[in-house]
Specification:
The protein has helices spanning 2-9, 18-28, 33-37, 43-50, 58-68, 72-77, 81-99, 103-111, 115-119, 122-138, 142-156, 163-179, 183-200, 205-221, 225-242, 245-261, 265-281, 285-301, 305-322, 325-341, 345-359, 366-382, 386-400, 406-422, 426-439. The protein is an all-alpha fold and 445 residues long. Among the domains are: 2-78, lambda repressor-like DNA-binding domains (434 Repressor (Amino-terminal Domain)), CATH 1.10.260; 317-445, Tetratricopeptide repeat domain (Serine Threonine Protein Phosphatase 5, Tetratricopeptide repeat, Alpha Horseshoe).
């Protein structure tokens, strides 16, 4: 028992050198250097090994490991073969959980991985950091994810990694910045990531496709539709060249959004239907549900409100089945907008409030929160509840001001302008409309 406690207290770490591990294990065994050397080596040779003055041969390492009663792999690298295999298995399981969009399971698995077991393999450690940051990002803990990916960034600077891994770090950091609405920063990070990936000369088309797709999201937020379209086309070309159905589905999703923003609703619907078909083939219910929500929007814009509501209801049902409050909120918020535009004001209010309840405390979906607040405010305005509408529009402006998007701020100002007009304050209304117009133009009045 005393020996086990001593081993726990003085266990050599994976960061220690081979010589340090030999010394610590020898002390744990209560052996002198002479006793460890036995008839095979001199005391001085053992001393040189422990001080890092000489590197033992593989045969010597095997002999020392047997003499010290440890796994040869542990003496060589600080982690036993069994521990390393276990760590690799856990990281692989976490990566599989992320592929299945079970982010809570992924963080739980990674929480059981011993840091020392990862330290022996920089490649495995980087995989674990990538997986952990991605899982926390999608769980809404974006700032926590940024901290983890910054650790990955420092690790990837070592000579053990290529520019592809460094590009992957910047890509993931850019994704976190998108979630935090730091759009300009994200665009710069994606640009750097592309330069590194292309400079590496190594095959990384899947990574490049993902970078283009995410940068397209940024250009959409900045209302640069041409740049968004170009990046989507590049992403799609790369993904199709790899026959990567999952990435193709994601890119079609983004292509549908770009087409919708350009007012090309038939094309947007076509892209969305292709993406939905691929997601269904991949059994990706979460994204298939998201596409149903988007298809509802496109059908409404094409003058088919009944079909739109049917899609929203299906999207809501799927969100409940997979336990996603955020996806459920998207569907409810979309239905609220349709009811507002079709004159069902009280129903619009009810569903906007429901959406906000589902989105409460989720900073990573601040855009949808702001949109739901606008719908709620307008439903209150339509009912003549002006003071309540004013409070809600203030909340919407606060939410949407956190986005790097002139169009979102303009939407809040237009809503406040409509409220001012209802109160008979034409001067205030005109100023708010002017603010909105200026935000959407390259010139000032």
């Amino acid at each position: 028992m005393q020996q086990q406690l001593a081993r726990t207290r003085f266990a050599p770490s994976a960061r220690a050198s081979l010589g340090e591990r030999v010394r610590q294990l020898r002390i744990n065994r209560s052996l002198t250097q002479t006793e460890l050397a036995g008839d095979r080596f001199s005391k001085e040779y053992v001393s040189q090994i422990e001080r890092g003055k000489t590197r033992p041969t593989g045969e010597t390492v095997s002999w020392l490991a047997a003499r010290l009663g440890v796994d040869e792999n542990f003496l060589e690298m600080g982690v036993s073969s069994g521990a390393l295999d276990r760590a690799q298995g856990l990281v692989s399981r976490a990566e599989a959980a992320i592929e299945a969009q079970d982010y809570e399971e992924a963080t739980t698995i990674l929480g059981s991985v011993e840091t020392a077991d990862l330290a022996v393999s920089p490649e495995l450690e980087l995989r674990a950091l990538f997986a952990e940051s991605w899982a926390w990002m999608y769980r809404g803990e974006v700032r926590k994810a940024v901290g983890i990916i910054e650790r990955a960034r420092r690790l990837a600077e070592s000579s053990a990694f290529s520019d592809v891994e460094r590009a992957d770090v910047l890509y993931r950091l850019g994704c976190c910045r998108v979630k935090l609405s730091s759009i300009s920063t994200a665009v710069a990070l994606f640009g750097e990531a592309l330069q590194l990936a292309e400079r590496s000369g190594l095959p990384c088309d899947r990574l490049r496709s993902h970078i283009f797709a995410w940068r397209s999201r940024c250009y959409q937020r900045q209302r640069d539709w041409e740049a968004a379209r170009e990046d989507v086309e590049r992403a799609l070309e790369l993904a199709e060249g790899l026959n990567d159905r999952e990435t193709v589905a994601h890119v079609y999703f983004q292509a549908s959004l770009v087409a919708e923003r350009q007012g090309r609703y038939v094309l947007a619907r076509s892209y969305a239907e292709r993406a939905k078909t691929l997601y269904e083939e991949l059994s990706d219910d979460r994204n298939a549900g998201n596409l149903l929500n988007n298809l509802g929007v496109f059908n409404f814009m094409l003058g088919k409100p009944d079909e739109a509501v049917a899609h929203f209801k299906d999207a809501f049902r799927i969100a409940l089945e997979i336990g996603s409050d955020v996806n459920a909120a998207y569907a409810v918020s979309s239905m609220a907008q349709v009811h507002l535009r079709t004159g069902k004001i009280q129903l619009a209010e009810e569903q906007a409030r429901h959406a906000l309840e589902l989105l409460a405390g989720r900073d990573e979906v601040i855009e949808e929160t702001g949109n739901a607040q606008l719908v709620l405010g307008r439903s209150l305005l339509e009912q003549g509840r002006l003071d309540e509408a004013a409070e809600t529009f203030e909340l919407a402006e606060t939410s949407l001001s956190q986005l790097s998007s002139a169009s979102h701020r303009a939407a809040a100002w237009v809503a406040k302008g409509d409220l001012a007009a209802c109160r008979g304050d034409d001067r205030a209304a005109a100023q708010l409309y002017r603010n909105a117009a200026e935000a959407l133009q390259d010139f000032r009045f």
